[in-house]
């Protein structure tokens, strides 16, 4: 017997009803949580996908990613750790020189949800000053390690003058799996305006230091991802370039520990 849910859709005998409910709920969340939202996609008429790379700079991974991006005339946004910037300033300078956008991932890779709000402000604002002093330019975006964010840390990040940026599809490239498998994962939910999460380094979890860094070639993975993007008639760009081309940042809530 067919039943009707609260949203007014007939749930039985209609295979598409569940998907319609999901779409309605997703739209409601997006429209209702913008005031406390993080950037999670870009609304654009251009064939753009936003490429983002976390956890660098890394003397192996970053070099290979930069080389691949240059070969494809593609820009990206790099969310960097300032403890690594201090160790590899030349890599940061190279990334900037090749036209990429620099954003902040933190001083280190600790989950901010472990700290009180006051300490989050101190850690993020200190890392921001350090990065901007090195760059000689302002930084706009922040991505919390692991995407770990609560309403309290979101408010703390906003108090530093930065804006949280999360993601949609991801390559799951903290796992040591075949490149083609990782690239296929990156394509699973990728559409125009998606913000794609990838990594040019491996920071792991400081609370579980036994983690082992993946051994695949990050340049090779980047090439496979760009190939998949191109097959869909899309093009990878940095967040700054997507917005400069007329895109609008889409914000809705992202909270998880």
From TrEMBL:
Domain NodB homology, chain residue ranges per copy: 47-237
Pfam families reported in the protein's UniProt record: Polysacc_deac_1
PROSITE patterns the record matches: NODB
Gene3D superfamilies: Glycoside hydrolase/deacetylase
GO biological process assignments: carbohydrate metabolic process
Gene Ontology molecular function: any one: hydrolase activity, acting on carbon-nitrogen (but not peptide) bonds
Protein name: Polysaccharide deacetylase family protein
